[in-house]
């Protein structure tokens, strides 16, 4: 199997070390230090368990040693597919302690994605929950073990015939290896792109811990912070922005939410004195609608982060009045660059932009289709490089050729406009713009107008191929409970907002639900495929 590396040119690496971004920290050392400093403090709360830092560190070291005793060797890859359970942290930090490389999968992934990740990473092991949300992950893992010769070890949190139980995997921590090179790969994250199977993203100890440290500082985390993980813990947003790992870096407490419904999470926020949590936009809209009806008693909540996709201004302005906390917009990618609105930014900056970069050494270029820079305020393609933005995917020569430009610039696929302050306004993905008879239309601009209608909970606009116009627009509308505005009413509403006529959707469809990705973002790809299938069916008639 190809070696897993992530290497910055030496002149860049030297600069990042000299400026204090890379400090030689590693994940095994991080947990040992927190356990030494905060041994009796709660680290992780969930599933009826309250795990202190000392307990997490001891459990992780014993588990890591047990993995090595079973025949795994430092440098081996191990796929982790677990839900929001305390065992996830024991497993991952156990892998770090043993010098093994986690490969993260999401609970929603099934055979196609898991088989791809196992094969592409060359994983020798899997650590899974037996069942998540009713799905038998143990049966899937064992069937894959029979099919993939490289997959030798399946370890289950819970019980399943034919698999080792995680609780029984333990060894002597004295046999653990020395800490790894801080510039070595700590884990393989998965790409969050909307097309194709996930790509593997190698992240190093130094680069990722830098993001945890700075994200925790920007988000105001300290030892008293209590972070609610409502989204899947293996997702990059939930893990690092500042997420669960950033909370542990700050010495705070991670509270695990088994489901992300507003009712369950409002209760957890109240009972566990949660101070910060993070959502993707569709969930944030659901929470806001629930809060408008129930007015939840959640006085400890200080910050609601929204990221993973653009949070439209009409929705962003509802957060403070309905939830009584500060909104923090987060725009980033598992490949690296992360932007935050700061907690002390003016309200219009918080609601109208998606933040500015973590690092003074995050370099940003906004260019037109020809690759030429565009002035501030004008939309263009986002290119970036910096101390935590990767220089290449693992074993993906084709994707690397498409996504990385000379000089190490990563082409994110996002369309943004940069303000003079450095804040970015996300206009959408490059593929989300609609070219209607030569007029370039931002799907998210149309969506912002649509959700301003009082009876619209969410809206997604995608393109439809058209023989005359090239592309036309189709809006999928999710109405609020008990309401369903007519398409004609929505068109009248949009005309009343004094916008160009070509921006009013050519087609409007009311839906009972919107398909989402594994982390809960709206799946534009699924909607486009629906429209494509319909068009093909019409051709065959």
UniProtKB/TrEMBL annotation:
InterPro entries: AMP-bd_C, AMP-bd_C_sf, AMP-binding_CS, AMP-dep_synth/lig_dom, ATP-dep_AMP-bd_enzyme. Residues 32-394 form the AMP-dependent synthetase/ligase domain. One of its GO terms (molecular function) is ligase activity, forming carbon-sulfur bonds. Residues 445-521 form the AMP-binding enzyme C-terminal domain. The keyword Nucleus does not apply. Pathway: Siderophore biosynthesis. Keywords: Ligase. Gene3D superfamilies: 3.30.300.30, 3.40.50.980, Luciferase, Domain 3 (2.30.38.10). Signal peptide: none annotated. This is AMP-binding protein. It comes from Mangrovicoccus algicola.
């Amino acid at each position: 199997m190809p070696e897993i590396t992530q290497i910055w040119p030496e002149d860049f690496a030297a600069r990042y070390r000299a400026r204090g971004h890379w400090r030689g920290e590693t994940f095994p050392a991080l947990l040992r230090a927190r356990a030494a400093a905060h041994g009796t403090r709660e680290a992780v709360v969930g599933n009826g368990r309250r795990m202190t830092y000392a307990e997490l560190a001891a459990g992780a070291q014993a588990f890591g040693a047990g993995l090595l005793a079973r025949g795994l060797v430092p440098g081996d890859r191990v796929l982790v597919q677990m839900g929001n359970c305390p065992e996830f942290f024991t497993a991952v930090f156990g892998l770090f302690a043993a010098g093994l490389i986690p490969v993260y999968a999401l609970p929603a992934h099934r055979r196609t994605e898991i088989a791809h990740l196992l094969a592409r990473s060359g994983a020798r092991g899997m650590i899974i929950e037996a069942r998540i949300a009713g799905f038998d992950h143990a049966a899937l893992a064992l069937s894959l073990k029979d099919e993939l010769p490289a997959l030798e070890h399946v370890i289950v949190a819970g019980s399943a015939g034919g698999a080792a139980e995680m609780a029984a995997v333990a060894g002597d921590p004295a046999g653990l290896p020395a800490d790894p090179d801080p510039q070595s790969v700590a884990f393989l994250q998965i790409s969050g792109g909307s097309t194709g199977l996930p790509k593997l993203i190698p992240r190093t100890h130094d680069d990722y811990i830098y993001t945890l440290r700075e994200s925790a500082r920007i988000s105001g985390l300290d030892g008293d912070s209590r972070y609610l993980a409502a989204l899947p813990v293996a997702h990059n947003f939930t893990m690092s922005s500042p997420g669960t790992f950033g909370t542990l870096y700050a010495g705070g407490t991670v509270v695990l939410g088994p489901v992300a419904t507003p009712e369950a999470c409002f209760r957890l926020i109240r009972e566990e004195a949660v101070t910060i949590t993070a959502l993707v936009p569709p969930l944030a809209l659901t929470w806001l609608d629930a809060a408008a009806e129930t007015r939840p008693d959640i006085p400890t909540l200080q910050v609601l982060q929204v990221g993973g996709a653009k949070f439209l201004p009409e929705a962003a302005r509802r957060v403070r009045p309905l939830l009584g906390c500060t909104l923090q917009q987060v725009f980033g990618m598992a490949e690296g660059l992360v932007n935050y609105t700061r907690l002390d930014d003016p309200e219009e900056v918080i609601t109208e932009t998606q933040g500015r970069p973590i690092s003074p050494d995050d370099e940003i270029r906004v260019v037109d289709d020809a690759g030429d820079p565009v002035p501030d305020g004008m939309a263009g393609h986002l290119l970036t490089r910096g101390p935590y933005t990767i220089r290449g995917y693992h074993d993906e020569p084709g994707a690397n050729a498409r996504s990385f430009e000379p000089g190490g610039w990563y082409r994110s696929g996002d369309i943004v406009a940069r303000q003079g302050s450095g804040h970015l306004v996300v206009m959408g993905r490059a593929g989300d713009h609609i070219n209607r008879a030569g007029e370039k239309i931002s799907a998210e601009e149309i969506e912002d107008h649509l959700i301003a209608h009082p009876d619209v909970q969410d809206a997604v606009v995608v393109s439809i191929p058209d023989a005359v116009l090239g592309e036309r627009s189709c809006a999928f509308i999710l109405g609020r409970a008990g309401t369903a505005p007519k398409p004609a009413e929505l068109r009248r509403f949009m005309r009343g907002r004094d916008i160009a006529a070509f921006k009013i959707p050519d087609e409007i469809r009311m839906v009972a639900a919107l398909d989402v990705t594994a982390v809960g973002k709206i799946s534009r790809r699924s909607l486009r495929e629906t429209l494509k299938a319909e068009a093909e069916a019409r051709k065959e008639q």
